Amino acid sequence: MKHWFRLHGLALSRTLGALLRHPVATLLHLAVIGLVASLPLGLYLLLTSVGGVAAKMPVEPQLTVFLKPEADVGALRAQLAKDARLAQTRFVPKDDALKAMESAIGSGDLLAGLAENPLPDAFVLTARRDVPAAELTRLEQNLLTDPGVDTVQLDSAWAARLEKAIALGRHALQVVVLLLAVALVLVTGNAIRMQILTRREEIEVAKLIGATDSFIRRPFHYSAAIQGVLGGLAGCGIAAGAIAWLNPAVGELAAAYGQPFLLALPGPVELAVVCATTMLLCLLGAWFAVWRHLRRYR
Amino acid sequence: MIQFQQVTKRYPGGLDALKGLSMDIQPGELVFLAGHSGAGKSTLLKLIAGIEKPTSGTVLVNGQNLARASRGSLPYVRRHFGLIFQDHKILFDRPVYDNVKLPLDIIGFDGREVKRRVLAALDKVGLSGKEKLNPIALSGGEQQRLCIARAVVHRPSILLADEPTANLDRDYAHDILELFKSFHQVGVTLVISAHDETLMADYGRRILRLKNGQFTA
Ligand SMILES: Nc1ncnc2c1ncn2[C@@H]1O[C@H](COP(=O)(O)OP(=O)(O)OP(=O)(O)O)[C@@H](O)[C@H]1O
Ligand SMILES: [Mg+2]
């Protein structure tokens, strides 16, 4: 056991020494890992921030159902009252609509010259807040099949669009994570390959005089793991910096829409997940590079 | 201790470097290996250390067939050997001390023991006080001594030296051979190759003579 710790301690101290001896190469590699990690992290934070605020928004999707003159208002009202998707049903007779319009415009004489009120009767429906956008569309389709219904206007189309945009963003995030994960493995594999090349002679001698494969592997695995964690930290730092820089402008834009909103900074959970992920990906790249090199020795 | 039975070695795409060799080296024996350039001396030593596998025949070391050793166990078998390479394989990116230390790191000796053994090995070969130098600052003979120190620092039971006296003047070569004799005296089995047979004659030991991959009388 003591022996095992000694071998690992030796590899670790040698690795740290090697990383510090080539500060430029180390920093460059950390910057690459950091940039690669910051992109999906930033995207993720953007999506969760926007998704969070969209969920909190008082979106009470409204549908306005305009009726034909021959509509059976009583039957329709009874049918709507039974619909579990609706929170509130309000009938707006065409005379009320006219009055509202007149007061809005500030003229009491809109109908001068017209024989009768051209506005239709209407129902203003408020859907329950937990009804998904797809269900609202289905409700709209149902209503249109009623012979007494002329048109239906869905006032929450924008909310559905936002929901779809966020879903699209989530898919894009998955693709980005996958591509960048592969990139990170390749970049680290290549960096470790270069480290191996500069130490080729040492590896050859060590193998000849009785080094095990793990003795050779160990310092490279440590190197990759350490750089993975530090690179992950750098990625969180880059993402946090970018968000902090963007947030004042985001806040102003949100205020213009009457919504207090800021992009979230990475928290401890994000930090841990990012560092663990970059560490594992870097280890994978190193493992592959060392495996390829060791294959040539008997 | 080291047994060859009808050993043939053919390199890929090449001629037979060794042809049907049989021999037996006893524990604690000091054997010289002589032969012209290209006779197969290095190949023979590599077969003993399991660096190369025989094309046919068997090589036994302590009764074990290295050609059959698994990838996992081979490193541990290798630690019984001290190897002095014809091309030295000195690492010029680190001081003399760290070169000699490498076998001990591989085995996993603890720090104090490492220091004690490295300094003792350097003292033995006459490089005391040069441990901090870069090997590039050593003369050819001193580099050879460095190789010997690295080969013996973990106290192997078999020492294989490939042309340790090459490029050295006669007196210096004799000093090196005296050094090997002192290892022989403490029971180490030694195989030393050289193309200059006149050096070996003074020692009255068994000489294996190779010519085009075969033993001659
Ligand atoms: N890795 C190799 N691949 C192909 N042929 C090889 C290889 N190593 C050695 N040979 C050939 O095997 C033969 C014996 O080589 P070896 O190195 O054993 O000779 P040697 O007696 O050590 O010579 P020298 O005194 O020049 O070191 C030579 O003909 C050489 O060309
Ligand atoms: Mg040779």
UniProtKB/TrEMBL annotation, chain A:
Domain annotation FtsX extracellular: ranges: 62-152
Biological processes, Gene Ontology terms: cell division
Boundaries of every ABC3 transporter permease C-terminal domain copy: 175-295
Matches recorded under Pfam families: FtsX, FtsX_ECD
Keyword Transferase: no
Highest rank taxon of the organism: Bacteria
Predominant place of localization: membrane
Subcellular location: Cell inner membrane
UniProt membrane topology term: Multi-pass membrane protein
TM stretches of this protein: 24-47, 224-246, 271-291
Keyword hit for Oxidoreductase: no
Keywords: Cell cycle, Cell division, Cell inner membrane, Cell membrane, Membrane, Transmembrane, Transmembrane helix
Self-association and partners: Forms a membrane-associated complex with FtsE.
NCBIfam families from the UniProt entry: FtsX_Gneg
Protein family: Belongs to the ABC-4 integral membrane protein family. FtsX subfamily.
Cited function: Part of the ABC transporter FtsEX involved in cellular division.
Protein name: Cell division protein FtsX
Source organism phylogeny: Bacteria, Pseudomonadati, Pseudomonadota, Betaproteobacteria, Neisseriales
UniProtKB/TrEMBL annotation, chain B:
Pfam families: ABC_tran
All copies of domain ABC transporter, residue ranges: 2-217
Keywords from the UniProt entry: ATP-binding, Cell membrane, Membrane, Nucleotide-binding
SMART domains to which the protein is assigned, alphabetical: AAA
GO molecular function: ATP binding
InterPro entries attached to this UniProt entry: AAA+_ATPase, ABC_transporter-like_ATP-bd, ABC_transporter-like_CS, ABC_transpr_LolD-like, P-loop_NTPase
Superkingdom of origin organism: Bacteria
This protein's record includes keyword Cell membrane: yes
UniProt key word Iron: no
SUPFAM superfamilies: P-loop containing nucleoside triphosphate hydrolases (SSF52540)
Name of this chain's protein: ABC transporter ATP-binding protein
Naturally occurring in which organism (per UniProt): Jeongeupia chitinilytica
